[in-house]
UniProtKB/TrEMBL annotation:
One Pfam family this sequence matches: HK97-gp10_like
InterPro entries, per database record: HK97-gp10_tail
Protein name in the entry: HK97 gp10 family phage protein
Species this protein is from: Pseudothioclava arenosa
Length: 159
């Protein structure tokens, strides 16, 4: 067969296959971030009203970025290249977990040492938001993966 260079075709195919993971990841990131934004909006709508500080502390950390201090176990966390993180809290608002899960009755320390705290009732907002947005996020990300795979398989541009 004239004009058929199997080595050149194999080399082009190998190069395209090697590029698929990065190309797919790049094309899927907007869907991941959009899904995290959806979760954030729903969580804010479900968070209890107060002064709005808790709601404002619910934020998206995009791929490769670092979460606000105190949002992840009291410290910071870097989002992976294929994930967006939704966190609650910042240096001024460190009580999201207490609102989400409530507190048991306990004896106070600090300024009110020795007094009895009656506990607080849980007011879940983040976990319900995650449940409400999970199916849509899966569909959105699945579509993005499918489109990115087809685009990569066809040798589409991923600038």
């Amino acid at each position: 067969m004239a004009g058929l260079d199997l080595n050149a075709q194999a080399a082009r195919l190998a190069k395209r296959l090697e590029a698929i993971p990065n190309a797919v990841l790049q094309d899927v990131r907007p869907a991941v971030v959009a899904s995290a934004e959806d979760l954030t909006h729903v969580a804010r709508s479900l968070a209890p009203e107060d002064e709005g500080d808790l709601k404002a502390s619910i934020v998206v950390t995009p791929p490769g970025a670092e979460t606000p201090a105190y949002a992840e176990g009291g410290g910071r966390r870097r989002a992976g290249e294929n994930q967006a993180l939704v966190t609650v809290g910042n240096p001024e608002q460190r009580h999201g977990h207490l609102v989400e899960f409530g507190t048991d009755p306990h004896v106070n320390a600090g300024q009110f040492a020795g007094t009895q705290h009656p506990g607080t009732e849980a007011q879940p907002f983040l976990l319900p938001a995650a449940r409400l947005t999970e199916a849509r996020a899966r569909r959105r990300i699945g579509r993005a993966i499918g489109q990115a795979m087809r685009k990569a398989a066809q040798g589409g541009s991923h600038d």
